[in-house]
């Protein structure tokens, strides 16, 4: 049942994003940025915690989940003071995700040939 909930939650989040792109005047970059900001706001509000507990990876893997992890990193610190400590708190939770993105992008660049 856990897989079904993850599939449904992730599917609904992605379907909403696709509808906003198709029906609205937003570009994919606008929607991606908005999903990250929405994840941060819902993460700080405590709403995304309940969604992540119910949906698991279906809520934490889309871009809104990335924003949630950024907010969670800041909230995990007792009281980050200043920009450096706040940034360190963010990277404590999202650092592995950033490393995976960079390594995956590098591997894709080595394997794939550009068309042009």
From TrEMBL:
- The reply on keyword Transmembrane is yes
Taxonomy, superkingdom: Bacteria
Q: Which controlled-vocabulary keywords does the entry list?
A: Membrane, Transmembrane, Transmembrane helix
Pfam hit, one: SpoVAC_SpoVAEB
Q: Which InterPro entries does the UniProt record give? A: SpoVA (IPR005562)
Per the UniProt record, which residue ranges are transmembrane?
27-44, 51-71, 91-112
Q: What is this protein called?
A: SpoVA/SpoVAEb family sporulation membrane protein
């Amino acid at each position: 049942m856990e897989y079904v909930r993850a599939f449904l939650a992730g599917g609904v989040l992605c379907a909403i994003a696709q509808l906003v792109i198709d029906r609205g005047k937003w570009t994919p970059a606008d929607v991606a940025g908005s999903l990250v900001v929405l994840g941060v706001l819902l993460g700080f509000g405590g709403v995304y915690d309940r969604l992540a507990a119910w949906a698991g990876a279906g809520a934490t893997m889309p871009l809104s989940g990335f924003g949630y992890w950024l907010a969670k990193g800041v909230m995990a610190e007792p009281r980050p003071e200043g920009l450096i400590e706040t940034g360190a708190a963010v990277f404590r939770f999202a650092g592995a995700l950033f490393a995976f993105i960079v390594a995956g992008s590098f591997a894709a660049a080595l394997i794939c040939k550009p068309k042009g």
